[in-house]
Amino acid sequence: MPQNPYRYPLVRVTAARRIGVPLGEFAAATGLHPDLVRRYVALGLLEPATGPAGQPCFDTTHLMRLARIQRLRSGLGLNYAALGVVLDLLDRIDQLEAALAGRAATGRR
């Protein structure tokens, strides 16, 4: 199964297509309060790059991860600790699927 980086089409990706979107602009693009985005960063759920002035900078991958976080919070009611565990497991599944797809592409089993 090919991996699609735009797996969740309901995410508004246009606002953060460029790399290095500052926190305020990122929060506005997602519709979240900047303090909630800061909380996700402090908890390690989002890991932004650091800009030249030391401020966090976000890109499209962060939008998709944040959409996943929001779906897990609202759909399953997960708390922050559970979010971390589930996100780690989902990341691992993505890695394993990519490795399996790579093996299939080379004809190995």
Helix content: 55-70%
Parts with pLDDT < 50 across at least 5 consecutive residues: 1-16
Tell me how many strands there are: 3
Sketch the major β-sheet.
Answer: 3 strands, antiparallel
Q: Indicate the radius of gyration in whole angstroms.
A: 15 Å
Give the structural class.
mainly alpha
Q: Would you tell me the overall average pLDDT?
A: 83
Distance between the termini: 15 Å
Helix-strand pattern, N to C? EHHEEHH
Beta percentage is 5-15%
Overall outline? globular
Oligomer: single chain
How many helical elements?
4
Q: Order of strands in the sheet with the most strands?
A: 1-3-2
Structure in words:
- It is a single chain.
- The chain is mostly helical and 109 residues long.
- 55% of the residues lie in helices and 6% in strands.
- It has 4 helices and 3 strands.
- Strands 1-3-2 form a 3-stranded antiparallel sheet.
- It is globular, with a radius of gyration of 15 Å.
- The model is unreliable at 1-16 (pLDDT under 50).
